Amino acid sequence: xxxxxxxxxxxxxxxxxxxFSGVVLADDVAVTWAQLxxxxxxxxxxxxxxxxxxxxxxxxxxxxxxxxxxxxDAAKQTLVQKRLDNWSRMxxxxxxxxxxxxxxxxxxxxxxxxxxxxxxxxxQKLPESERARLxxxxxxxxxxxx
Length: 146
Description:
Largest sheet: none
Number of helices: 8
Radius of gyration: 17 Å
Number of strands: 0
Shape: elongated
Order of helices and strands: HHHHHHHH
Strand content: under 5%
Helix content: 55-70%
């Protein structure tokens, strides 16, 4: 079955990729929460309480998400909101682990990535009772798997 690390990789790959893809130029302005538009605030609301403590490059990545959000279909918007919410609930330690897991995942071969994705999909298809049983039997593997 899928380990917690694999689940975490798949859960935050999108967000971490957005956070770390590209280079932010040194002259980019650090926009405060108060300076965001109402639309940006709505999209980025899970990050409201910490926005002003984010690094400028992190803010820039989040602004890119907010800019592209209206162009996304409803399913993608829901996914982005879920991932922003999950990210906002993580502790700094969990975020660092997520970044490391993402880097490890990115270093895998395409075959291994596909294998992990397949296992995760199989796990997600299991009834909740079966997933609960797996988590109870192997808490180190399935820690926070849902």
